[in-house]
Amino acid sequence: MRSRTKRSTEAGAGSDRVQKVLAAAGVGSRRDVERWIREGRLRVNGEVPALGLKIARGDKVTLDGRPVRWRAPAGRAAQVIVYHRSPGDPLDLKEAGSRAALHLRLPRSAGRWLAVQSLPPVDGGLEILTDDGAWAQRISRGVHGLEVGYLLRMRGPLDDGLVEEFRASTMHENEPLAILAAVPQYGEGANHWLDVTARATRAALVRHWWAARGFIVSRLIRVRFGPVRLGRDLPRGRSRPMSTEERAELEAQADAARAAPADPAAREGAEARAIEPRNSRPTRLANPD
Predict the structure, then answer these.
(1) Radius of gyration (Cα) for the chain, nearest Å?
(2) Is 243 domain-assigned?
(3) Is residue 22 part of a domain?
(4) Higher confidence at residue 277 or residue 22?
(5) What is the DSSP string of 219-256?
């Protein structure tokens, strides 16, 4: 009698490649699944599958011996949510979907939650989560073209000259910087706020640039990711569904960036990068401290 794995390979209607199915279910990216197969960690019906194996309803998939819930209920749309992560609070999505949902107060998902361009653990703010691996890959492939907003709280003698130097910088630590705007808000005492708009620039690189000049960045909060903004109405540790309009615009921007040649070091015109006046106010969150 032929094995279930062999029969899955020959499956027709209702079947698809294991990498595609598990990515769409939010279990991991296609590359993750391929790596798990090569390492012998992923099994279908008790056997290590071949790359490109097709699976269908009834096939049992395990990862490291644990059952994988890979088939979403019929007709269920992929979930995409906006999550407000507290600075320094790890975004632990490696646990099974139910445990991660309980710990992070996330909606329950049939698969595992995936983060689209998650921030370093020390930082916080807007995180975009989905249980659809294919959607996460779609956005990630165009992330180099998206504008991202950061709100920095810093300690040090901030002045217009340093802000101008930051805005004009194109490289740091052998990585490109693309700072589109830098809006200072000079506070009282040692703390100052800086509202930054960047493109294809890691949050850690922004932090490192200022640290190299003697500034302590005590807070770095992402407040915008493309067209999606972190509003005052979303408290820390809470999430909300991404609206249909936000999702459509985010997909459109990511698709357009993916189709265009990637140029992380590309600079905007001087008019788009000018430092705002002192009385400009950065995006504020409720109780940012």
Answers:
(1) 22
(2) no
(3) yes
(4) 22
(5) EEEEEEETTEE--TTS-TT-EEEPPHHHHHHHHHHHHH
Q: Residue 161: exposed, middle, or buried by beta-carbon count in 10 A (0-12, 13-18, 19+)? A: exposed
Nearest CA to 254 out of 119, 149, 138, 147 is that of: 138
Our count of domains for the chain comes to 1
Residue with structure tokens 């012998």?
40
User: Residue 84, exposed/middle/buried by CB under 10 A (0-12, 13-18, 19+)?
Assistant: buried
48 part of a folded domain:
yes
- With contact defined as beta carbons under 8 Å apart, do 250 and 226 qualify? yes
- d(CA 227, CA 142) in angstroms, rounded, equals 13
Q: Which of 122, 73, 121 is nearest to 93 (CA)?
A: 121
| 213-227 tens-digit pLDDT | 999 899 999 999 999
Summarize pLDDT for 172-224 with one digit per residue, the tens: 999 999 999 999 987 777 788 999 999 999 999 999 999 999 998 999 999 99
Which residue(s) pair with 114 in the sheet?
130
d(CA 126, CA 73): 28
Closest CA to 221 of 120, 129, 130: 120
pTM: 0.69
Average pLDDT score, the chain? 80
The whole-angstrom separation of Cα 216 and Cα 14 is 55
Cα–Cα–Cα angle for 135, 117, 241, rounded to 5 degrees: 55
User: Is 25 a member of any domain?
Assistant: yes
pLDDT digits (tens, 9 = 90+) for 225-263: 999 999 999 999 999 999 999 999 999 999 999 887 655
Which range of residues forms the domain containing residue 37?
Answer: 4-67
CATH number at residue 60: 3.10.290.10
